[in-house]
Amino acid sequence: MGEEKLTNIISIKRWRVTTIVILLRVLALFATATATIVMALNKETHTFAVATIGNTPVKLAITAKFQHMPANLMFVIANGVATLHSLLMITIMCFVMIAAVCGAATTVAFIGELARHGNAHARWNKVCDNFERYCDQASGAMLASYIGVLFLMLVNVINVFEHGRLMSPSKSPLSA
Predict the structure, then answer these.
(1) For the residues 17-44, what does the mean pLDDT come to?
(2) CA–CA distance, 2 with 28 (Å, rounded to integer)
(3) In this predicted structure, what is the pLDDT of residue 176?
(4) 145 near 101, Cβ under 8 Å?
(5) At what angle do helices 2-40 and 70-88 cross, to 10 degrees?
(6) 77-to-71, 92, 108 alpha-carbon distances in Å
(7) Beta bridge partners of residue 24, listed in sequence order
(8) How far apart are CA 38 and CA 76, in angstroms?
(9) N vs C: which end of the chain shows fewer Cβ within 10 Å?
(10) Roughly how many angstroms between the first and final C-alpha of the chain, as a whole number?
């Protein structure tokens, strides 16, 4: 009787852990999908007056797209793969996905800092003064990506404890 009750408690705890892992994977899916979609649709056009001939201004339209920066392209690809990974719920590739998405988000953070503030030493001008909406969308995509990384990390931590519990049920903190 006591062994059956212990088995029921363990199965309830496994069900709870499984439910939490699935919930975190779904949250990671939404976060990485949001980051992918927001960055992939990120585009802004700004028209500049470059000269004036008589009373007629000569204008030049410049478009900022995510494809113009390799870092943004890597960001979209890494988050797209992480979205697919979360959709398929493949546990083996979690560490690789965390590394890829975190690396892509960090690269975009660096490029975003450069776009917002420029670099006087390299004579790179600020870009976000002219393409404010584009930069704001990229910042939102980066934030969603880091949230996805957080959820993927939580899934991994839970999976590590769960794996440890399966190997040694009496020593794992999840089985107590």
Answers:
(1) 88
(2) 39
(3) 44
(4) yes
(5) 150
(6) 10, 19, 12
(7) none
(8) 9
(9) N
(10) 19
